[in-house]
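Tokens in:
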């Protein structure tokens, strides 16, 4: 799992940097509001699902009250090449301390090896604008 932001993490998050940017910029899946910023982005790949490009994503944001919100969904790319999302679930209010426990529980329940998990920690980047710039540039 990657714990710090770096160029490789941004480009390789689910091997789909452009998809992640589309999720966050164009589709605004996190419903980002003024004063909020990204927190951590996760992607889980099962080795056996690479052929179908099925993956599971969890995106989190830091709200202005210091708590988190998240959106989680499955995504796959059929032969036509346009990503399709399903099973979108939103958690509008979550204590920051609960996120690591949730991710650990998902890993334990699914028995997902660390090499099949991408984590992009944007929590140290102080503004949403700077986070978007880093994602847009991939650096």
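Residues out:
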């Amino acid at each position: 799992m990657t714990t710090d932001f770096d160029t490789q993490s941004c480009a390789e998050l689910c091997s789909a940097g452009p998809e992640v940017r589309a999720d966050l910029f164009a589709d605004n899946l996190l419903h980002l509001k003024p004063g909020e910023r990204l927190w951590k982005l996760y992607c889980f790949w099962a080795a056996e699902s690479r052929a179908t490009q099925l993956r599971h994503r969890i995106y989190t944001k830091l709200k202005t009250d210091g708590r988190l919100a998240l959106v989680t969904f499955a995504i796959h790319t059929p032969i036509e090449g346009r990503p399709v999302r399903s099973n979108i679930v939103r958690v509008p209010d979550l204590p920051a301390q609960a996120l690591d426990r949730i991710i650990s529980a998902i890993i334990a329940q699914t028995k997902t090896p660390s090499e099949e998990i991408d984590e992009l920690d944007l929590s140290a980047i102080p503004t949403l604008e700077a986070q978007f710039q880093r994602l847009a540039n991939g650096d």
